[in-house]
Amino acid sequence: MPDINAIVTAMTLEEKAALVTGASAWTTTPIERLGVPELLMSDGPHGVRRVPDIHAMGAVSLPATCFPTASALASSWDAGLIYAMGQALAEEALALGVGLLLGPGVNMKRSPLGGRNFEYFSEDPYLAGELAVSLIDGIQSKGVGTSLKHYAVNNQEFERFRIDAKVDERTLREIYLPAFEIAVKRAQPWSVMCSYNKINGSYGSEHYDLLTRILKEEWGLEGFVVSDWGAVHDRVTALKAGLDLEMPGPRARRTQAVIEAVNGRALDESVLDEAARRILRIVFKAAETPKGGSFDVDAHHALAQKIAGECIVLLKNNGILPLKPNVNVAVIGRAAEVAHYQGGGSSHINPTRVAVPFAELKALAQDAELTYAMGYPADDSFQPALIEEAVGLAQAADVAVLHLGLPSYKESEGYDRADMDLTAQQVALIKAVSAVQPNCVVVLNNGSPVAMGDWIDGVGAVVEAWMMGQAGGGAIADVLFGRVNPSGKLAETFPLRLEDTPAYLHWPGDNGQVQYGEGLYIGYRYYDARKLPTQFPFGYGLSYTTFAYSNLELSSHHFRDVDGVVVSLDVTNTGAVAGKEIVQIYVHDRASALARPPKELKGFAKVALEPGETKTVSIPLNARAFAFYHPGHGQWMTEDGEFDILVGASSADIRLQAAVTLESTSALPSLLNRESTVRDWINDPRGKQVFMPL
Predict the structure, then answer these.
(1) Does the annotation mark 228 as catalytic?
(2) By residue range, what is the domain housing residue 25?
């Protein structure tokens, strides 16, 4: 790496102003006289969308592997597999000349209606952060950078360019920032991408507290901050706030505005220098890894299929699955012949191939008799003749497998969903087929929850296959016929009704604002607090085998927060086939100065077990697992007291429980003032001394 400071010193004002604005839609500005190369970026959360023309935004990209989207990926809860996917993405990026991939996205799933929910991991910040670390580490291990996005509070597409997200400081710190914080501190993504929206009155591109005070100073981001494409409103204000690189380019007037601001002393040149240094470090870092060559198309397709198989969640099974080898199957649903495997927008990948579910079923189950009916059209029109054909086929079969999913135009960047429903034809199809064929299996391809209340009781099994990537058709066949034992678990709650969802009364906002009135209570935190039933809880998923939990042990029952505690337990496969179980650790604070959710995920592990096999799982919990953010003190803190360690197979299926006592080492200033109550004084360590003699 060359001497970055020397290069910045040698640069003219004009060169520095040009560097902080892109040279094209996808490249930074090179400076030939100083040996500064360009950096080529590409969309990339679940595949490399390398556009041949660097000046084009929406052109068809070069072929690349389309891996499962983040909503699917998160259901694997498999850090090692996600790391391997990251390495494969990097290999393809290098082959296509790309030095930095724009992703992953770690925004929270505030509502099932979010148009880009398929691009995000979870409703839980801890899980999203942990999985993001694995993906970032995998990509960057090969010398390709990442851009963590969309920072911050970007949870809807409605008015995304101007909506002002009104969120209190504690909710911001505990829900909407932790996934970014975990990823930055643990994985150091080469860049972080700001969001389009406003956060409490300031655009994400101009938010000094978020970009500089928190991201760079508090969390220690070493790379640069890049705008989402077209997110900058005032270039000088954005630079002052900590926005280093504006994309896309070129923006001659923006470059000139920076020059004039420095010359007019409206912008200190040291701010520009710092932005230039951050960009140059990454530009040269990316240049160290040679580009070009090829990648193993077949191997990456096989990896995509393996990942998709680990992502599939078995939601219901009355014993019909796995299917017997010589079964007569009526395969119904357009998605069986026209695979629905990714969403729309900037993440849309041009796949190297697509595994068609019906063809994959025929290839795997050669002893089975398979027939096909379309069942529903490509649009929202209602066509009874297609249902009648499907019913006739189902009646003559042993089993009916319905491949369904939201139409591609329902889940996309740029707009949100209007409801949680499948199309009217698909619902009618399920009801009609299940009425004549009790052995009915529904396979869903979607990026976020769908309503099931009208039909789920009538079907024998439900398989959530998500937006499964290009190889998902093979993965579905593997799971249906038992070649793969499903091990995925939900990374988001499936509600019974849209009206039950935490943000229902606040979504999507009006008059240019959206109120985050539910505060901390999103996802399972809300359903737990309200004691509301759900269709399927967070962390839920079935298997073709069963698991038993036992022998819960803690490294200590009384510990200091800085020392943490290790949770250990035995997991046994009590069934007849090999399988994988995802053990989840939740923490409940019995008493707190501030209200807290009933429980929060703080650890997990995925364990593979042969029939009858037992393994010991150990999961460490650090101080942060017991802490909350106190806006009065402006910091994370713990309190002395008792906590429950809850070990579960889902958020609603707690198998083991133990109590611990925590000793806090938090050193906090007193918040007492003339308006403090007697209770405030008694609860304050210093105030208590005043009342002790009384």
Answers:
(1) yes
(2) 4-287
